[in-house]
Amino acid sequence: MTTFLATDNWYDLRDLANLSREILEAADKILPFGVVYVLAAVIGFVASFLIFVLPSQLFVGVYGERKLIGRIQSRYGPNRVGPFGLLQPIADAIKLMQKEALTPTRSDRLVMYVAPIFFVAPAVLLFAVIPFGPNMVFADIPVSLMYFLAISSLPVLANFMAGWSANNKYSLFGAIRIVAMTISYETPLVMSLLGAVVISSTLSLQGMVLWADEYKIWLGLVQPLALVIYFICVSAELNRTPTDIAEAESEIVAGYLTEYSGMKWGLFYGMDIGYALAASAFAATVFLGGWTLFGLEKWVPPWIIFIGKTHLFYALFIWTRGTLPRLRSDQLMAFAWKFLLPLALFNLFIVVTERMIWSEEGYDKAYIYLFAIFNILVSGLLVFAWARFNGYRPDDVPTRPRLVKEARGYVPLGENE
Amino acid sequence: MDGFGVTVAFWILAAVTLVAGGGVMVSRNLLHAVLFLILSFIGVAGFFVLLSAEFIAMAQVIIYVGAITVLILFAVLLTPRASRDNSETVWALPGMLLAVCLAAIFLFVVHDTQWKTVTDAPLLTTQDLGHALLGTWVLPFEIASVLLTAALVGAIMLTRSAEEEAEDALA
Amino acid sequence: MSVGIEHFLTVGALLFCLGLAIALSKRNAIGVLMGVELMLNAVNLTLITFSRFAVSERPITGQAFAVFIITVAAAEAAVALALAVSVYRNRETVDVDQLNLLRS
Amino acid sequence: MTGVIKSEPFVINIGPQHPSTHGVFRIRATVDGEKVVDAEMVMGYLHRSMEKLAEERTYTQNIPFTDRTDYLSSMSNNLGYCLAAEKLAGIEVPARGDAIRVIMAELQRLASHCMAVGAFANDTGAWQTPVMWCFREREKILDIFEVTSGARLTCNYMRIGGVAFDLRPAFEPMVRKVLADLPPFIEEMEQLLTGNEIFVSRTRGIGVLSPELATNASLSGPMLRGSGIAWDLRKADPYCGYEQYDFDIPIGYQGDSYDRFIVRLEEMRQSVKIIQQALDGLPSGPFRTEVPLALRPQKGEAYARIESPRGELGYYLVSDEGPAPYRFHIRPPSFINLSALKEMTVGGTVADAIVVLGSIDIVVGEIDR
Q1: A157: closest CA of chain B, how far (Å)
Q2: What's the predicted TM-score (pTM) here?
Q3: pLDDT tier at A277 (50, 70, 90 boundaries)?
Q4: CA-based angle B161:B163:B164, to the nearest 5?
Q5: Which residues of B touch A (CB under 8 A)?
Q6: Each residue's pLDDT tens digit, A137-147
Q7: Which residues in chain B are closer than 8 Å to A186, comparing Cβ atoms?
Q8: Which of 3.50.50.60, 1.20.120.1200, 3.30.590.10, 3.40.47.10 is the CATH number of B1-99?
């Protein structure tokens, strides 16, 4: 699999998996049977958390998000704790731990305590299938894409438990909204990913990265529409603005998190970022070529390329959060069913047709570039046409009010001003 | 299937699945029952992984945990608070007796039969499953898709209110 | 220690009977549905077990059958829940004992 | 999911502690699913009995109270009260005083509309960005107030007979800078919000207020103009010499939240125009008529009204020849505008109710006095 890798030495920084392999092989000789699996799991999780998840959560998810949104909002963002405010996330965490974890009197205590745990566990599991580098994938199972989808459908239940158990009307609102939204957005999400699966003919994330490496093109370019739909759907499932109706601050206070405080809330907050990072990592793997960068991965450690891409995709979430207003819940549902799902189906038809043509032509590499150009053009056209078909008429909306010189009472529409 | 890991995994999964199934039976609150049901589904998915059917396991989690239980939760929320208890009818005792008898029969059959089994897991990939579904079983596959569509339409028709139908009749 | 086909089948059988007991005894229509779902799961587990252990030319058939069962279960759940909601709308109850309109 | 089942409606309390009620205001909304079927306003959490307190203080001492009614437009409130007192005592204001008052009132309108537009965008869910941009611009105006009156929010700048101090030398360049900065900023806000499909779909057709209802509920300000009624006290009943400035009344199309929003943005443009004209033609001379501190107007009553950023702001004073007003009454525009809330929210969703409330642009200090 890794023919181009320069060395297999444990000190090769380009592939940190060598190191863990050396450790495990050495451990296998002395330790009793079975323990080495546990050790491998521990090493995998600890390494992926220490290298990627925790630093990313703290310094991209918390600090970076606040700083970037601060700049978008023409203010400084955190700049008090530590150099450039870099220690702000740690100060936040300390503050959260000191806070009292309140539980409302008539709440369902057990469910309320279990919900954060049930929320955190899938986030940890998600990173098991993300390929950080050529060998650096903890569980290289053949259906890792489906694994990712399956695990990422679990946190909604935790959200529901949190919202329902708190015995608060706002929480219940949030719970109902998130359940409805997840049902709606799972469908176009899977449909859009199906396009990527069809063109790369694999369900394995590592296989998709290798496909991108082989054809020297990102799947996001071949499947631009799928990338956009994935981004929208995933931001809906992650409750990121503009689709954060489940914890819409200005409407239902904090949605399902209204009654949570202290570290119980902190777990939800931290793992929200964890899920967003996992979704970004998934998008970077499927659509942006994972740890490859057109040959650069021979010189730069691939995991650095991968983390860079992930954070770049994560910045998109921050950007939309700082720019867009929130949709109403019924509009959001209508958007999923009337807009995203048909577009995803169109996209699927196109990509299946392309796949047929491609197989007729003996899988010629040049065709992929042709498909990419065609798909980019057609996607733009399709989005615009479908929007028009659904009644999108931006020119009909007046941007300026009518102007009247005299105070003369009611001026009917169309009357000369 | 030998090996320490597999054995431990089996007993843990069996405990989780059956205890959660029992939880569905005994919990008074319907929503707690749903949460136990989720746990049971996850346990069954674990069994599928253990039986080297990854695709089915993932499909199980996506469809059962991600979709069906969410639907059930929705149905529970749509019915009022008063009808959220999970109590038994007068048929509880006969039903349980029947279940116990059936369990006895099943267990007898399972343990009394000399199963002809393979020792190693057959090499089944997701690709094989795809070929089977779209090759050998293509007709049932299509019928299943028609069934899904019919269910979709039927579910929508069932839950429409009289006002909505009146609105559509006018339009 | 080893686990064989009997272990899996036992779990499947017990789960099925548990589901049956739930489906037969619950008052709430949604509770009944949950029992049915458990039974279907048990059947799936049994199918996959046979697909893994049984001596067969095409062991994949078990998995294919499981896919169909999952599909049917999804359709069944959607329709059953729609029925429950619809029944509740018309009768203001989801208690299966009180749905006795056909009783003379 | 409404209409699917016979769900029992339940009551949610939006407020008094809620991120979107702009203070301590409460809506008891009866909701059926997400749909609001009834809305009841509960107010009085910020009641400070200003009208009664004012009867114990002299006319000049009452000016700081007016700062604290509508704390987002203290200059306008000062102006309304001073106009009423002047009308009661028959005091003429010198031309320079009038021009300064116009500039201040219009600057206050800009600051207040900045806040209104930003908070409205926040209510639609634009996470803090528009409101922060608006704060940036409002900050410059508050700096001008600080230079002129010494205070940023509760200016207490107007006096009976004129204004408290003359303008500082730094005043004019600062105002010119604000006037140069604002039009591009308004353009920017338009690009961010009016050109945004999500924002338009959230606000257009939401909280529609028919012209009849708007008139019958005696609404005023951008609420009334959003419904297509050309009514502006600066044109209809000019005070402070507004008749000499050239400006237009912006009116909306169908009276929804979106129309109220674009009317506010256009009013900011018109305000810039008025300030420009007033600043160019700023007369010299005295800025205040000398008035005795313990003013004792002759027996009688007076009602003066101005176009505050939120609508018709009226002050009603009755004198019994004492040093304090016998009766002091405020007609707060927010309070009257709020009376149409129920008609606008019932039938919409909870999210719509928040948007409608944001589009009314309430200030609780003014509602409860």
Answers
A1: 8
A2: 0.86
A3: confident
A4: 70
A5: 3-5, 29, 31-32, 35, 38, 45, 54-55, 57-59, 61-62, 65-67, 69-71, 73-74, 77, 125-126
A6: 777 788 888 88
A7: 66-67
A8: 1.20.120.1200
